[in-house]
Inverse folding.
C-alpha cells in the first residue's frame, strides 16, 4: 500500500532485500521538450529522469557539459528510475562538452546513474530504448555524439556528426 509518501509491503519477492530502491511508476511524468534554445549554460541543458521523454526541434549550444543526460538517481536523491523510451529527434547540438575530458562522456550521455561511479556497473542493461534520429552534432571536439552504458537498445538514424570524436560509444555492446 502507498500512503503519505511511504510504501508498505507485507512480503518482498525472493532476491529483494536491504539496499534495493523502488520506483513508483504511477508518479512518473511524461516529458515533452519542443522547439526551444539552450545556450551558454553552466552545466547540461536537459536531465532526463523519467520513463518516457521526447526532445524535439531544439537548439543546444555552447555548453560546458553534456547537452542531454539520461540517467536515474539511486545514489543520493532517490528521485527517478530508468527510462523506457526516450526520443531525441531533429535537434542541433553545437559546441557542447566544452569543459570535459575525452573520457566517458558524450553530447548525449546515457548512464545507469548520473554519478558515474554509482550503480549499475558496465554491462547491466537498465534503460530500455533511446532513439537518436535526424540530429546535427557540430564541433563537439572532445567527445563523441552519444556515450551510452546501461542501455538495452540504441537507435541511431540519419544523424550528421561534424567536428566530434565520432558518432557513438556504447559500452557493453558491439
Amino acid at each position: 500500500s502507498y500512503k503519505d509518501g511511504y510504501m508498505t509491503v507485507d512480503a518482498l519477492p525472493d532476491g529483494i532485500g536491504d539496499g534495493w530502491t523502488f520506483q513508483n511508476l504511477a508518479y512518473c511524468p511524461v516529458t515533452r521538450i519542443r522547439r526551444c534554445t539552450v545556450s551558454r549554460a553552466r552545466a547540461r541543458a536537459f536531465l532526463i529522469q523519467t520513463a518516457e521523454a521526447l526532445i524535439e526541434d531544439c537548439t543546444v549550444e555552447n555548453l560546458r557539459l553534456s547537452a542531454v543526460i539520461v540517467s536515474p538517481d539511486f545514489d543520493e536523491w532517490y528521485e527517478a528510475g530508468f527510462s523506457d523510451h526516450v526520443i531525441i529527434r531533429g535537434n542541433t547540438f553545437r559546441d557542447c562538452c566544452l569543459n570535459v575530458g575525452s573520457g566517458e562522456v558524450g553530447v548525449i550521455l546515457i548512464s545507469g546513474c548520473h554519478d558515474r561511479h554509482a550503480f549499475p556497473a558496465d554491462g547491466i542493461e537498465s534503460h530500455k530504448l533511446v532513439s537518436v534520429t535526424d540530429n546535427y552534432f557540430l564541433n563537439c571536439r572532445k567527445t563523441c555524439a552519444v556515450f551510452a552504458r546501461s542501455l538495452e537498445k540504441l537507435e541511431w538514424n540519419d544523424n550528421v556528426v561534424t567536428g566530434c570524436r565520432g558518432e557513438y560509444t556504447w559500452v557493453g555492446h558491439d
